Queue: 2 jobs
Job 1
Amino acid sequence: MPELPEVETIKRQLEKKLPGKEIEKVQIIDCPNADKRIRALSGIKILKVRRRAKTLIVDLNNDKSLLIHLKLTGQLIFRKNAGKERFTRVLFYLSSGGLLFNDMRKFGFIKLVPTENVEKEIHEKYGPEPFDKDFTLKIFEEILVRKKKSKIKPLLMDQKVISGLGNIYAQEACFIAGIKPGRTAGSLDKKEQTRLYSAIKKVLLSAIKFHGTSFDSIYVDAYGQPGGFGQRLYVYQQEKCKRCGQTLKSLRLGGRGTWYCGRCQN
DNA sequence: CCTTATGCCTGAATGC
DNA sequence: TGCATTCAGGCATAAG
């Protein structure tokens, strides 16, 4: 399930590949959430690839941008020889190679919006990027005070509050910070707030370094390669604590599977 | 304002 | 073996 590190990995790879390339043809194979107008992009060139939260933004030279969200099972893969694969939903034929939008469960979407509206469509809807300078410790503390009754792990997953964290990295951050995921935001003391703030950045940076998590073998990067962070997970879908060896506890928070160590997290 | 539930989907895993 | 059931989850939306 692509979260910030996975989408960032794809973004960094595609921004080296796509700019300057021309879209020769777009084929929508089976994609209920794809804007039909993308079929008319023949002859349009790709200018830039960006990321905001978990959404990829592909700016085009016709003042429009593609907004691509992979949701749970989406893949965006660059292939030298374009061809339909098992779950290919949209196929972009490029001047060299092809860009495949694969999505087993069809939750993902591709929108086409005027580039000038990207701000409105995306940026305004989401909370701060964890690596932007506006995401300061002070801002984070204010969030925790404002949402003091929320449970901390579902809060970290709320894109309107902070963008980019999903079910994996929210609970990994809680582990690294030594905080139980079911604690309320308001119950964190100053030290815990600081630890969690650092843990968010730490886990995301590390995951980006290893090209993300391919735990479920669904996520792959823009070259079809799995990420290497899966074996470095502390708690997500793990049985025993990597630090103390104790059997992890599991529960559901916000409807999502959640794991934590009763000894290492307080 | 809040929290929790639902729908969108399909494949893998499980149960009888 | 096969068929039905359950589960996974991002996130918009509805309901409580």
Note: Chain A has a mean pLDDT of 92.
Job 2
Amino acid sequence: METFATRGYHNASLAEIAERSGLTQAGVLHHFRSKAGLLTGVLDLRDQSDLAQLGEERPRGLAFLAHLVDTARRNAEREGIVRLYAVLSAESVTSGHPAQEYFRARYAGLRAMVVEAIGEAADAGEVPAGLDPRAAASAVMAVMDGLQVQWLLAPEAVDMAATTDLVIGALLGRPVPGGG
Amino acid sequence: METFATRGYHNASLAEIAERSGLTQAGVLHHFRSKAGLLTGVLDLRDQSDLAQLGEERPRGLAFLAHLVDTARRNAEREGIVRLYAVLSAESVTSGHPAQEYFRARYAGLRAMVVEAIGEAADAGEVPAGLDPRAAASAVMAVMDGLQVQWLLAPEAVDMAATTDLVIGALLGRPVPGGG
DNA sequence: GTCTATATTTGGATAGAC
DNA sequence: GTCTATCCAAATATAGAC
């Protein structure tokens, strides 16, 4: 994980991964049939410990959106994870990238969850009437992703949690804090 | 540009770039002292034809934010450019990446421009009183960047211009279209 | 300014011993 | 399950002819 996060997929070498694992390069390839297989293994492992694992027991409605802000807050303490996903998700759009299908599915699944949560909030009358749930869902996800890149390049210039909260609040028509 | 956009920096090869340029690999390196030099050359060239070139003659206040929406709209017709920046900006956060300083400066400059535009709009009374200009600026940039990755992976699932407009409008307190 | 030729390094992957 | 040894391909970069 750390090597893919720090180097990206293509610039990561099995030699470095092996060294950090206390193995030889051949030893690593005994457990994964290829470098691409290792990457998907890393991504599958990661999946077991975060958002995608929420599944059917996720918070509902506004609580889910609040959970996204919490995730952004926790992410500020987990630079490695943030870097891994920020680098690999963008790299995955290059031709023939082994994680392309993974991220396509991840975004589709995540978008569906956010759309559903917004729909739940709308049913409870907590969302402006004309809001397009799909556009809003894409927007929330995009803000979180985009903030990560900015934050990785200049951590002191960006507050991921506060900014995510600002956008979600604005989309929901929440009055600006301290403002009119 | 096309090769770096399609492959990313590390996975792009001078051989491919040379072939697409009608040169040999040595011929390419006659004009650029290294692969890294070629990348910065591409980025500098690109800069002459878009946002960063706006400089002091940019639109002011809300007109600048409207210009960002226009940029998102035009980007939907320029997949190559979108891919180039989406891939390289994220890749640039990896250690030792040759475009890291370029993107750090680009984001800082862009953020300053958006902050200024929001300040102008605020002076004109067109912005909610409590809005944090720096957070809002980061948010707008982040939305645009994040949407690009989603759009590259699933173009039919994302409307970059409409979603950018949605977020800007929400931050400015504009009523939702068709809504209450 | 472009080429051929080549140096040099590094990459992923495989075979087979232990 | 881990190793050594090796293969083969590809990479960037340089030297020097034309």
Note: Residues 13-15, 25-26, 29, 33-35 of chain A lie near DNA strand C (CB under 10 Å from a C1').
